[in-house]
Design goal:
Elements (H helix, E strand, L loop, with lengths): L5 H14 L3 E7 L9 E7 L2 H15 L8 E3 L7 E5 L3 E7 H7 L1 H4 L4 E2 L5 H7 L1
Parallel strand pairs: 2-5
Antiparallel strand pairs: 1-2, 1-6, 3-4, 4-5
């Protein structure tokens, strides 16, 4: 099995989130801007239960690559924001209202956005 680098893992996380219908998925390269991570992945969930489902699906999908989270926060029945720490990658999954309220995109606006192949990109390549 191919060993993935942090950038590849962040892209895999984005793909997993898209598989389960997360919206507005972004990957920020923050390694020059943050001491806590190299990449942040942000995604919007449709509901509180969708937040938890996205976290669980992503964790399960990364097991195939021997990638386990160090810590998860915000996993409650009524959660609207969950954070999963995969070491050098931090994943934020929010409901739309919480994402708009905290506006992490603005906080990290100077960070590079990482391009990744979305499902719509694949359709245009076929």
């Amino acid at each position: 099995m191919k060993k993935l680098n942090f950038r590849d893992i962040a892209k895999k996380i984005a793909s997993c989130l898209q598989d389960k219908k997360a919206a507005d998925i972004l990957i920020f390269d923050v390694k020059d801007k943050s001491s806590i991570a190299d990449y942040f992945v942000l995604a919007t969930a449709r509901s509180n239960s969708h937040v938890n489902a996205l976290v669980d699906y992503t964790k399960g999908s990364l097991l195939a690559f021997d990638v386990l989270p160090f810590r998860r926060e915000g996993l409650f029945k009524d959660t609207r924001w969950a954070v999963t720490d995969f070491g050098n990658i931090i994943v934020h999954i929010f409901t739309a209202d919480i994402r708009a309220e905290y506006n992490l995109e603005n906080l990290w606006r100077d960070a590079k956005t990482v391009k990744w192949e979305t499902k719509s990109d694949k359709k245009t390549l076929d």
